[in-house]
Write a structure and sequence with these properties.
With 308 residues, the chain is α/β, with parallel strands linked by helices. It is built from six helices and eight strands; from the N terminus they run ααβββαββββαβαα.
Amino acid sequence: MVSNSLNRSLKQAPAAVQSGRWVTISVITIGSISCLILGWSVIRTQMRSLTDDRSILLELLDRVSNGGDHRLREAPSSSIPPAPLSRSWHSPLARQCSGLNKELRFRLEDLQERSDSWRTFIPIDPTNFGERFTRDAFGRRLDATPRIIVLHETVYSVNSAVNTFLTPHLRDEDQASYHTLVSLDGRVLDLVDPLKRAYGAGFSAFLGEWAITNKNLKGSVNNFALHLGLETPPSGANAHSTHSGYTPKQYDVLAIVLSGWMRVFDLPPTAITTHSHVDVGGERADPRSFDWSALQMRLAALGHLCIS
C-alpha cells in the first residue's frame, strides 16, 4: 500500500515540477513588468520636474533680461487706458472759391518774401520738447506724422512765454512749448522744429485719438500735432472768457505760417483746431476771442479754402 502511494507520487512529481515552473515564470514576468512600469513612472516624474524647473529658469532669465521686472513687457490690452470718446470738430473755416481778395493775396505774398525781417528761430531748452514717438508706452505703433494744428494763446506777454520755454524743466508735468509763437506786433518766433514734438497740450485728444507716451501721464495730441501760440493782448492777462482780440499783423503772419504747414504736411483747413477743443479736462479756453472770419479771409486769398 505504501509502495503504490509512493509510485503514484513519483509519477505525479514531474507534472508538479512543470506546474511550479510556470508559476515561477509567471511571477517573474509579472514582477518584471511591474518594475518596468514603476521605473517609467519615476522617469516621467523626473522629466516633468526638469521641464518645470527649465520653465521657471527661463522665466527668471526673462525677468533678468527685462531689468528684473516682468512688468516692463508689453501690457495686456485690458490695462491700456482707452482713448476718450470722439468729439466731433466742426471747423469754422468754410469752403471758398470766389470773392477772393486779390490785393490781400499780393500783400501776404509780399510779406512772405520778406519773412527774414519778421521771422526768427529761438532754440529753447531741450527739456521742453522731444522726438516724436513711433511707439507708445505700451509698445503699439504710432503714426507720428503731424495731422492737426492747435491754436493757443500765451495769456501773458510773448517774453514771458519765451522765458518759460528757455527754462529747464526736469519734471514732465512742468514741460511746455509751442512750435511757433506769434507776437502782437507781427513777429514770428520759431521755437521747435515741426518734425519734433512740442509740449503744447497735456490731457488732450482730437476726434477720439491721442497718444500715451508716458505711462505716468494721460494721453495727448502732442505726438501728432503742431502747436502755435498767439500773444495775448494786455486785456487778456486774466481768466475772463474774452479780451480785446488779436491784431491784424498777427492774423497776417498767422495765415502765412499756417499756409506753409498746410503745404508741407498736406493738411486740410479742418485740421486747424483750438486748445479749447482738444482739451479733454475742459480747463482750457484758448485762444479766446479768436476771429475765424479774419483767418478765413486770409487763407481763402492764399488759395487754401477752395477744396472739395
